[in-house]
Amino acid sequence: MQDSVLDRIFIEHQKPDHGSLLPSITIHARNDWSEQHVDDDIEAVKAILLQAAKQALSWDEDSTPSQIDCHRWRYAATLKPLDNTELGILVDEPRQWIVSGDWCGQGNIESCYQMARQTVAKICADQIS
Question: Which residues of the chain have pLDDT under 70?
């Protein structure tokens, strides 16, 4: 996918415990491309992303999905620290607050899982002690 507008492609029905899903794919455009096209007509954006997906996945007329949706997450991308360090979850012990989110990690979908895991681990550790 070098030089593509696409950043990531998720084959949803191949994830663990998702075998009963109908074939579905989630595609994320690159953040820089998305920022440049954030106010473009959604149908034009959809057409560009579909063409990039066709090329990346070698889709032809028979394999191209019949149902396609396009959604903007205008404020989803977060800035990463220059040194690539992760904050991790933020804990205020006296108030018993935990602040967490993908922005505490690398600002990507994997960080959602990682920060949720850290949050659960912290809560469980506090309940044991």
Answer: 1-2, 14, 18-19, 21, 75-84, 129
Is this structure's pTM higher than 0.85? no
Per the CB < 8 A criterion, the answer to whether 100 and 90 are in contact is yes
Strands 90-92, 97-99: pairing kind: antiparallel
Measured CA to CA, the distance from residue 110 to residue 92 in angstroms comes to 24
Residue 100 burial (10 A CB sphere; 0-12, 13-18, 19+):
buried
Report residue 69 as tokens. Answer: 């949706």
Mark out the alpha helices in the chain (DSSP H runs).
Answer: 31-36, 42-57, 109-128
> Long-range pairs for 76-81 at CB < 8 Å and ≥24 separation?
77/31, 77/34, 77/35, 77/107, 78/102, 78/103, 78/107, 79/107, 80/106, 80/107
